[in-house]
Specification:
- The chain is an alpha+beta fold and 350 residues long.
- It has two domains: 18-182, no CATH class; 191-348, Mog1/PsbP, alpha/beta/alpha sandwich (Protein Transport Mog1p, Chain A).
- Helix content is 40%, strand content 19%.
- The strands form two sheets. Strands 2, 3, 4, 5, 6, 7, 8 and 9 form an eight-stranded antiparallel β-sheet that branches. A three-stranded antiparallel β-sheet has the order 10-1-11.
- Helix 2 (31-48) runs antiparallel to helix 5 and helix 6 packs antiparallel against helix 9 (167-177).
- The longest helix is centred in the middle third of the chain and has 21 residues, at 111-131.
- The chain starts with 23 loop residues before the first helix and ends with a strand.
Length: 350
Amino acid sequence: MGQGADSAVAPAVKSIPPQGGLTDQELAAMPPCIALGETIWALAEQRLKGLSQEDLKKQYESQPDTKSKATILSLADKVYADKFVSASAYSVRYFDGCAQKNAHVAPDRMGVANSCLRNAYIASIASSLKRSGVPAEKAYEPFADLYGTMASTIVDKVYRSADPGEGGVAEWKACVISSPTWTTPQKGPEVLLAPPPSGYQSSSPAKTDKFVTSNLYLQGESPKNWTAQINLTAFPGLIDQTPTAFQRAVQGPSEACKDGKVISASVGQKDGYAFALWYETCAGSPAGKTEFRFHKVIQGHENLYSITKSFRSEPTEAQTQQCRSYLDSLKVCDSTRSGQPCPGADAWHP
């Protein structure tokens, strides 16, 4: 008699093997391939951005004639002769070919290694910018739109390192070695450090299946009658959305800010967390009054955090400066990632 469906053995759950399935010997043979992948990616990016091959070569005219220079110019000839639409996918072709030749790793075993090439590329660009004296905030900007906190974590690590020379290779190895954690991400006690400014009191928080939100009003004011308010909102389902992408989706003109106008905007990273800041006016707010709004959005690992301070009359220069200082002070803290305790009194737990 055959076994019933309830007693059938369930198929084994596949997970990512240690080191992305690569042996110690294969890992040791990868650095030249990583360097090749990074170079191809950078050249391909330049071409896709519209830089001519002639202008690209001019960047190397002042450099001494070395083997490295000759190699880059030779690769540039290939990049500008080929057809492709994605710099990352194009660079993986070279990376895979090199891995097969140098480390005898077949392309069908390069899944994790290929994904981690992105980390190597970001780290190599950040290392180069650091050596050139570019501040970390500027080094993060090229990656803000696509990669958000993932990129800011890498940039932060490079800028904190005393020796970022092996940035790309080191970051690739770290990514590959930690690959099993991708299948079972560990959630830590992530909080938003957002102490209420003096004179503000919190209202009851509201929670839906998409977000948790809380408003703070000046003492004596209410949701129906306020001159200034602060809104804190956490979106657990938007952790893969970068702050700049979120900004584009909600900034005026929009349903909540029909006649909106962005006055200023910037992006940055703090402690490895990406953020976007912008200031806008909303002449067509739902309340029918002109509002002046200062926004900060931070991409955490458990939530995307949105903080908005609004005024119903144009803020004075002193209020504007105070508001910007307040937003600058807000940050995400996770003791399991930082290794340091988070201040309990200032923590907002969505």
